[in-house]
TrEMBL record:
<feature type="compositionally biased region" description="Polar residues">
    <location>
        <begin position="1"/>
        <end position="12"/>
    </location>
</feature>
<dbReference type="Pfam" id="PF01048">
    <property type="entry name" value="PNP_UDP_1"/>
</dbReference>
<dbReference type="InterPro" id="IPR035994">
    <property type="entry name" value="Nucleoside_phosphorylase_sf"/>
</dbReference>
<feature type="region of interest" description="Disordered">
    <location>
        <begin position="1"/>
        <end position="33"/>
    </location>
</feature>
<dbReference type="GO" id="GO:0003824">
    <property type="term" value="F:catalytic activity"/>
</dbReference>
<feature type="compositionally biased region" description="Basic and acidic residues">
    <location>
        <begin position="19"/>
        <end position="33"/>
    </location>
</feature>
<dbReference type="InterPro" id="IPR000845">
    <property type="entry name" value="Nucleoside_phosphorylase_d"/>
</dbReference>
<dbReference type="GO" id="GO:0009116">
    <property type="term" value="P:nucleoside metabolic process"/>
</dbReference>
<protein>
    <recommendedName>
        <fullName>Nucleoside phosphorylase domain-containing protein</fullName>
    </recommendedName>
</protein>
<dbReference type="InterPro" id="IPR053137">
    <property type="entry name" value="NLR-like"/>
</dbReference>
<feature type="domain" description="Nucleoside phosphorylase">
    <location>
        <begin position="42"/>
        <end position="320"/>
    </location>
</feature>
Length: 398
């Protein structure tokens, strides 16, 4: 059997205009969006909340639409787009927590068969530990493995061993390709190349995503929030308030913290739980909800913008900005990851080819050798050339 016979894709790009119902389903101005088949998607980005997904969508180089005739209904809110060479789906579980996130991840893997790995991108609660690291609101936490942990550990799952509670769950490490890409980002940070800040500036211009114009105060763990249901204005002026003394940061740029992210199902919002549940993990930098469920289904890197300190002073003020920081990190990271390795992987090969074809600049027409090469490749793979490369797109024919 030839490669072409073996790899003819089951779903092809369609030129049929989207119906009114379909446009409502996608919730977008889909008449202007290119359509991709589910097989073209190679990376899943999971966001628990709508503003987290919006922050990621603001970083897309291009948005797509995708229809599901062959694989059933869209069970979750999906968005599609391109981040450099990668075609991504942004998916949102129906509810927070590891079980719902795991169900969403399993469905996404079924509906998009060529997904290679995932990122969970959104906000999380920072674990302040000033003697070890200078972690502030609006920083970003990334689940990079360390000496005694794989990057993410479940904080509400484990066992007692020799009178000590051992955090459990054998979660896999993040994909090596993402750890390597993060390594390049670390080099950029040493060299003071501010790529993350540049992307972040683009998001923070959008309504609601600007950096909050408020002080970043870390209260002592013995000083609890005063006015329940209200903001911290009462805490800030209270005579008995206790604040952890920290040197002012000379800049307002986000700092990337790499280490252990603790994942579970319950919101941590008092300093006693915060310090108890980490159980001695010195590398622990952040609590979050849901990622452990995704990592059971698909290799995943967790990226969390720090929106609070997991104490009683937890507020919503930093949520959007923290989501923007996480989305900016995600974009810079994926820029450092090459597109799918197409050699010898038939479905991925198709996806990569489609990605290239779809990203063609329709306005320029002839792109020289590339314009001749791609149609030839498409023909070898069994694509229907007139359908895939219509004259109306202005592509030159071999
Ligand atoms: Zn407070």
């Amino acid at each position: 059997m030839t490669h072409a016979q073996n790899t003819a894709p089951t779903t092809r790009p369609s030129r049929k205009p989207a119906s009114a119902k379909e446009r409502m389903d996608t919730g977008s101005d889909s008449q202007e969006l290119k359509e991709i088949p589910p097989e073209a998607v190679t990376i899943a980005i999971f966001c628990a909340l709508s503003y987290e997904a919006a922050a990621v969508r603001y970083t897309l180089d291009e948005e797509f639409e995708c229809h599901f005739q062959s694989i059933g209904p869209k069970r979750y809110p999906y968005s599609f787009g391109r981040l450099r060479d990668h075609i991504v789906v942004i998916a949102r579980p129906h509810r927070m927590g590891t079980v719902k996130a795991g169900q969403c991840a399993a469905t996404v893997c079924q509906q998009f068969p060529n997904i290679q790995f995932a990122l969970m991108v959104g906000v999380g609660s920072g674990i302040p530990d000033p003697s070890r690291r200078d972690l502030r609101l609006g920083d970003v936490a990334v689940s990079i493995p360390g000496g005694n942990h794989p990057g993410v550990v479940e904080y509400d799952f484990g066992k007692y061993e020799h009178d000590r509670f051992i955090l459990g769950g054998n979660l896999d490490k993040p994909p090596g390709i993402l750890i390597s890409a993060d390594g390049i980002m670390q080099e950029d940070e040493i060299m003071d190349k501010r790529r993350l800040e540049k992307v972040l500036r683009g998001i923070t211009k959008k309504p609601g995503f600007a950096r909050p114009d408020v002080d970043d105060i870390l209260y002592d763990k013995n000083f609890h929030h005063i006015n329940k249901g209200s903001d911290c204005s009462g805490c800030e002026v209270a005579d008995r308030r206790k604040i952890v003394s920290r040197a002012p940061r000379p800049h307002a740029n986000p700092v990337v913290h790499r280490g252990l992210i603790l994942s579970g199902n319950s919101v941590i919002e008092n300093p006693e739980d915060r310090d108890r549940l980490r159980r001695g993990y010195e590398d622990a930098i952040c609590y979050e909800l849901g990622a452990a469920g995704i990592m059971d289904e698909i290799p995943c890197l967790v990226v969390r913008g720090i929106s609070d300190y997991a104490d009683t002073h937890k507020q919503d003020t930093w949520h959007h900005y923290a989501a923007a920081v996480a989305a900016a990190y995600c974009k810079v990271l994926l820029r450092k990851v090459d597109g799918p390795d197409v050699r010898g992987i038939s479905n991925i090969y198709d996806s990569q080819l489609l990605a290239q074809l779809l990203s063609f600049n329709t306005a320029t027409g002839d792109r020289g050798s590339e314009a001749k090469l791609l149609p030839n490749l498409a023909r070898q793979l069994g694509f229907d050339m007139p359908q895939l490369l219509p004259e109306s797109r202005g592509l030159s024919r071999p």
